[in-house]
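Figure 6 in text form: structure in, sequence out.
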């Protein structure tokens, strides 16, 4: 099909849940892709933080192709080597005791919520199941994770939403304390609120929440679906905060382009789930796990330092652009607050000029592949600068 035929089929046969840009990539390499007409685009989006190793990474392609030719799927009724090897690599890398594999960030967050409520029920019985999340958070689009999301405009249409969530102001420990009633079992938060505007939490606030959870025997859940797996210049964003939560959720960049989610459980939480307490048909899929192993192996200390370097390079370059009010975020997860331009209009203009960027509310959001070269980075920043200075 040509581009017009693709668009027509999309409009006719796919539910209209996405307002797509007028763009259809055909193939890619690294942080660059091309449409069917041969036009080049620099990617500052990573497929919303998914393509951590960029497009068509040779080692990743070889691993997933080899595994697909060997065993694409069986089920969680049986052992598989890729699943076991990935679990060992993740737990060894992060210091967590066990992991549950799912298929997405929302599913990982569902698993985390279930684990926290099960732990509380086992220890305290019924009536202690409320989870405190933060205003402006985003945790997914299932009915439960929408309820966990602290943004009112998501709480529409799909009633009744799952009960058991209350919302506290980010960076306001007194407000968090006011929400800790006898029915609360956990606090759940993103260390950088991604969809909420790429807003990092204050270190003092994070430390205070951690101490409060210890004092009240609450489960601390950190949603690292977008921040995890090297995005902020550390394997876990928690490392920036010297934080070790009870549960960490991962997804997006972990699979390098294939669907996967993970719930990391510390020693306290390791044995909360028993047989039949939780499950998923595709979790631990051998092909996805084979790709994820490549991602983990590549994210060594040198690469993490390079992510920090490239993040600082982006900041330094864009700080000189008059239209940029400020830059938030960590590593290569950055949000540009603009003075006059609308983020959606900037994203559209960037596509027209050969650059893929994202938005997060009123901000332009940048999530380049972690492997982006300096040459690709310079090309993309040149385009973005021209768009912002018009």
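Output sequence:
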């Amino acid at each position: 099909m040509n581009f017009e035929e693709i668009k027509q089929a999309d409009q006719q046969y796919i539910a209209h849940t996405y307002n797509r840009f007028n763009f259809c990539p055909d193939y890619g390499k690294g942080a660059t892709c091309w449409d069917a007409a041969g036009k080049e685009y620099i990617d500052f989006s990573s497929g919303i933080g998914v393509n951590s190793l960029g497009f068509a990474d040779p080692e990743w392609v070889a691993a997933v192709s080899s595994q697909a030719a060997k065993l694409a799927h069986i089920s969680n009724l049986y052992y598989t080597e890729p699943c076991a090897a990935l679990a060992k690599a993740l737990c060894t890398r992060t210091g967590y005791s066990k992991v549950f594999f799912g298929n997405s960030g929302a599913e990982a967050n569902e698993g985390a919520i279930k684990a926290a409520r099960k732990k509380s029920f086992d220890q305290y019985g019924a009536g202690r199941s409320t989870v405190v999340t933060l205003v402006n958070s985003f945790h997914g689009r299932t009915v439960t994770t929408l309820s966990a999301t602290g943004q009112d405009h998501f709480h529409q249409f799909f009633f009744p939403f799952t009960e058991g969530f209350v919302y506290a102001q980010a960076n306001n420990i007194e407000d968090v304390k006011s929400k800790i009633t006898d029915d609360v079992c956990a606090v759940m938060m993103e260390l950088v609120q991604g969809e909420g505007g790429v807003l990092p939490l204050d270190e003092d606030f994070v430390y205070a929440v951690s101490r409060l959870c210890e004092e009240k025997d609450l489960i601390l859940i950190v949603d690292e679906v977008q921040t995890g797996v090297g995005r902020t210049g550390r394997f876990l964003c928690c490392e920036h905060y010297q934080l070790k939560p009870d549960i960490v959720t991962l997804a997006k960049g972990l699979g390098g382009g294939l669907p996967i989610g993970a719930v990391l459980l510390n020693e306290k939480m390791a044995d909360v789930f028993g047989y039949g307490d939780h499950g998923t048909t595709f979790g631990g899929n051998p092909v996805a796990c084979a790709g994820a192993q490549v991602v983990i192996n590549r994210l060594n200390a040198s690469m993490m330092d390079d992510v920090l370097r490239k993040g600082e390079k982006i900041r330094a370059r864009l700080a000189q652009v008059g239209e940029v009010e400020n830059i938030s975020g960590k590593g290569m997860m950055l949000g540009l607050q603009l003075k006059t331009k609308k983020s959606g209009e900037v994203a559209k203009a960037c596509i027209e000029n050969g650059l893929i960027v994202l938005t997060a509310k009123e901000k332009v959001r940048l999530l380049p592949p972690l492997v982006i070269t300096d040459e690709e980075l310079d090309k993309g920043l040149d385009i973005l600068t021209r768009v912002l200075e018009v």
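Caption detail: The mean pLDDT is 98.
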